[in-house]
UniProtKB/TrEMBL annotation:
Protein name: Uncharacterized protein
InterPro entries the UniProt entry points to: DmX-like/RAVE_component, WD40/YVTN_repeat-like_dom_sf, WD40_repeat_dom_sf
GO BP term (any one): vacuolar acidification
Any single GO CC term annotated in Swiss-Prot or TrEMBL for this entry: RAVE complex
Length: 88
């Protein structure tokens, strides 16, 4: 789980590979960039310093970068690593 640096928004990454964005104080998900059962478990999720982007890494070494904005923009990343990455 990680918090947005400026807004009351949080990212959660699951063992089932899902990623969800939540707004503090609300019970409904803002958006689901990655649905459950599609990818390996999420190992890291982080917002950028300014909060306009976030990154997701998973157990298979996949790294994807997403733009924060309208819920419709949560459908796909703007960057996916062409090779597997190792996080330290």
């Amino acid at each position: 789980m990680c918090a947005h640096p400026l807004m009351p928004v949080y990212l959660t990454g699951g063992q089932d590979g899902s990623v969800q964005m939540w707004e503090w104080g609300h019970q409904q998900v803002v958006c689901t960039p990655r649905p459950p059962g599609t990818f390996a478990k999420v190992t890291r999720c982080r917002f950028s310093q300014h909060g306009n982007k976030f990154g997701i890494a998973d157990g298979d070494g996949n790294l994807s970068l997403w733009q924060v904005g309208l819920a419709s923009q949560c459908n796909r990343p703007f960057f996916v690593s062409p090779t597997k990455v190792q996080l330290m």
